[in-house]
Amino acid sequence: MNGDMPQNNHDKANGKPVDRFRPKFHMTPPFGLMNDPNGFIYYVGKYHTFYQWNPNKTVHATKYWGHFTSENLFEWKHENAVLAPEDWFDCNGCYSGSAIEHEGNLIVLYTGNVLNEIGDRETYQCMAISKDGMTFDKKGPVLHLPAGYTAHFRDPKVWKKEDTWYMVVGAQSETKTGKVALFSSTNLTDWEHHGAIAGSHMNGLGDFGYMWECPDLFSLSGKDVLIVSPQGLEPKGDDYHNLFQSGYFIGEMDYQTKQYCHGDFRELDRGFEFYAPQTTIGANGQRILIAWMGMPDESEEHHPTIHDGWIHAMTLPRELTLFEGKLYQKPVKELEKLRTNEVHYEHVSIFNNSRDFKGVSGQSIELIIDILTNKSDVFSMRISNAIQIDFDSKTKIFSLTRKNFQTQSDEVRKCKLEDIYSLNIFIDLSTVEIFINGGEEVFSSRFFSEKNDGEILFHSKGEVSLNIKKWEISQSICF
User: Fold this and answer.
1) Chosen domain end from 306, 331, 356
2) Catalytic residue (choose from 11, 19, 36, 216)
3) Catalytic residue check, 36
């Protein structure tokens, strides 16, 4: 990689960014813009999370591959960027992709984005190889755009089954419908196209978006799960209210016929900021997911962190399990190592009033709330005067409300739950991740409170009995 990386103009005398919205235990860029996680992998005793990075500005423009490493999934170190947009096949951006280990090497496959002389897009699926996970040798394109698709063809995810490598690519057909294209190879350089295995107007879906991004196909508990981020879905009830969506299908992949039969699409996360998730297999064989706490094409002109020279974050790593036909997401157990200064209350009751609990507050904390009995019509929590969560026992609706950071008007995201018995909440200055009922549903969002005092207020319309545990979370990101 050539050229000098830009420096953070917002650094203070001690060399560290100083701003009140930067999370302590979520990955953020040291400066510039972060989006999709890329090449998430456990390789030679270390986790690598690469990511889409514009180090020059806080806008979506030319993209590098930024790089974090960790030995334990909770302490992350920012490393030098590994891919730069400096070759003919990726000169306008090293776009998203995935990583595999092969013959002791770490190999990444990614999309090279090119805008030609007349402004048309060209796209190439490219390979780069590393012997140490830190420096890469680009090998150039291994897959050119096949017939039947527009140049919106990107985000290769690669895996091996038996003696064959497979790749899924997010795509747009020439009829402007979203697809997931499948390829296979025996050598990682020569790829056979098998057509689309999922997409709009397939498997009974009907019209289901004009572009599908960031596909990820993997086996879990005997099923084949396809995660994808479709663009162009219209809101439907409480579903699909973000600009773009991320969700999954559960089905069966027939590797002989190259057909994927699946059920309905379900959103992975119900919050405001969750996109482009990617999974890997962890050190203990578990399936782990990380996603971008942001949204493509959203207005970033007035985003509160751009004054400090950076924008966006990653979610915490989550372990996936499959239960009764639904993906459950739990924060990985390794995060418990970050807990300090426990405060707990047992069998506390709230009856038709609001109350706080001494020590149950903070700006970078974890909460576990067990709901022992719930005879309330509505159980609520208010976080840092910025986030409101409610469960309405009559309508069975769980909702998260915040103020839009541009308009300051209230906006809400919802989902239906038969009951609520536990909440695991991570608050980190400007991020909140809420895991409900052991990960049955998750809400991930950013928030920006002027007050930002870490106050947490509980409210019940009726009676509710709780166990509450709270921990402070220590700094775990090193730049």
Assistant:
1) 331
2) 36
3) yes
